[in-house]
Amino acid sequence: MSIAKSTLANLAGAFTPLIITLVSVPHYLRLIGEERYGTLAVIWSLLAYFVFFDFGLGRALAQRMARLGKAGDRERSDLLWTALLVSLPLSSSGGLILWISAEWILVHVVGMTPTHCKEALSAIPWLAPTLPLLICGSVLQGALHARERFVASNVASVVGNGFSQLVPLLIAMLGYRDLGSLVPAALSGRLITVTLLGAMCWRYVPLRVRANFQRSHVKPLLSYGGWSSAASMVAPFLVTVDRMVIGAMGGAASIAYYTIPYNVAAPLTLISHSLTVALFPRLAATSSANARCISADATRNLVAVMTPIVIGALAVAHPFLALWVGQEFAASANGVSELILLGVWTNSTVVAHFSRLQATGRVKTIFFTYLIEIPIYFLFLWVGLRTWGVLGAAAAWSLRVLLDAVLLLSVGGAFWQTVKDTFPAMALVVTSWGLVTFVDFYSPLRWVGLLILMALSMALNFPLIKRVSALAFSR
């Protein structure tokens, strides 16, 4: 399967749960309220952060198995079993730490009120034992990615995510609206995902019945996974810390005013993510020089696709939010989605080279880059929230993405080439953001200007867009 087709499969798997979310969130807000929804978002962020206790084994397995090339079924099965068995004690330790530290995090880091904290803590006993299961799912998914079985991987994820979102909604409709009921209902979908991933690995890796632990695989997995796990520990922190800081400084309602418009814009990063997942096994299996060429070409193609999409999203973000969750809510969150979209576009310029650094074993470089970003991001968040509230948090997020792109492209030796390739598109996106931010919504200048910019972005990138479309839909 070509990279374009694999990306398309990943996109389908990523956007199907998003569609379910778009339909379900207004019902969640109506049934459980903004503050409880914000508390639920914090719980999921907490679980996402503790998934770093996979110690990078999912990605390490994908890289190691991709490099095996035409190895036999037995060797791949032994490698997968080794990764699974190594992950169990590590993930169990993570579940125990989550259980012990949850109250301190919720009270002293997030700053929850006693009422909301008590309700959130009632859900923690469900999260802790579920963590090892989720991490095993990450390892299983890594094996499927190494084998480029992206359709199978995404089928498992879509079915499980659908249950995770719809079953709690059904429970809430039946009158069980406390977090102690909603969280375990959502976790049932995660169990389904892991079960399906295991079945897919049984067929496509294949995973043999006998669990054969090979000590020779442990050192290569942990050698790569060690720095990958360190980066994996920091990466979720960079993604989720904004909600924790917002909760501490503005309360649970402020988290909702940030999270919901964020969820309108940020899912467009799924396009970039889908490409990197498809690229990774190819980049791991080739030479460093060839990987650099593949990444540069992928960046040009991705930016060509993302530029008109982001311009269109800038145009409709606020009216969509108003239609989706109401005018009053949209007014309180005005401008958040638009600022996040700037970061979404910036992210598309670096993700292919980020995947290259991972695939060629330079995860140590990624880890130290993240360490540089953390104090700077905290400063951005503190200043932004103190000065502009949730709008400042959105600006801080996009500035952090820009810093991430500059650092990773620089260490990857691709900064100036990427700037040269993407500067015209960047100018169009920034101009579009200026129009939607500073020109009145009903002004003809706003809409005529956006149409012109959209047309220019399509004309500028038409050859690349045509090429990507031909690759994705060809037989």
UniProtKB/TrEMBL annotation:
The keyword Ubl conjugation does not apply. It is found in: Cell membrane. It is a multi-pass membrane protein. It comes from the Bacteria. The keyword Cell membrane applies. Keywords: Cell membrane, Membrane, Transmembrane, Transmembrane helix. CDD domains: MATE_Wzx_like. The chain crosses the membrane at residues 7-25, 37-58, 79-100, 120-143, 155-176, 182-200, 221-240, 260-281, 302-324, 366-385, 397-416, 447-465. This is Polysaccharide biosynthesis protein. It comes from Methylocaldum szegediense.
